[in-house]
Inverse folding.
């Protein structure tokens, strides 16, 4: 009888502990600078009133408008296993970045600070760059071991090569 009582007590403690861990709110802080770029990769000045928006499962969950120097800061983005970060400004092509955060919190951490600068190309109605409006320019996965985002270099260089080819055709 005592064994059954101790077993039931231990089981209750495990269930309560598991529920407490599941109720912990995880947040991501994101900040950086949004600048204008001149092809191939020369950074220009910060983009005043550029916008950064965060989407999870197709719904906007956070946003910020950059300062006059292009600096933005979002202090508390609610955790989602996968988010899309969209950088945009009226006269520039948008840039979308997909980030997988499924590993975040496995070490019981509840907050994550990410610094992410973005440069946007001017929208001079380049033919062929419409892919930037629908496809993410970068993809990454948060690594618990490295405590940061590991970027998919193959995907990035593929996208960059597509963009460079279009921009080169226009510069000739």
């Amino acid at each position: 009888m005592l064994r059954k009582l101790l077993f039931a007590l231990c089981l209750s403690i495990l269930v309560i502990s598991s529920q407490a861990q599941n109720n912990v709110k995880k947040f991501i802080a994101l900040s950086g600078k949004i600048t204008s770029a001149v092809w191939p990769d020369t950074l220009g000045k910060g983009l005043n009133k550029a916008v950064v928006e965060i989407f999870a499962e197709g719904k906007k969950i956070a946003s910020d408008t950059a300062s006059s120097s292009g600096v933005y800061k979002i202090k508390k983005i609610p955790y989602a296993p996968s988010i899309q970060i969209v950088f945009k400004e009226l006269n520039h092509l948008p840039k979308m970045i997909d980030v997988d955060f499924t590993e975040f919190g496995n070490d019981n951490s509840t907050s994550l600070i990410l610094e992410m600068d973005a440069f946007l190309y001017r929208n001079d109605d380049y033919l062929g760059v419409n892919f930037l409006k629908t496809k993410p320019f970068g993809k990454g996965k948060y690594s618990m071991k490295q405590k940061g985002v590991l970027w998919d270099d193959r995907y990035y260089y593929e996208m960059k090569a597509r963009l460079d080819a279009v921009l080169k055709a226009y510069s000739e």
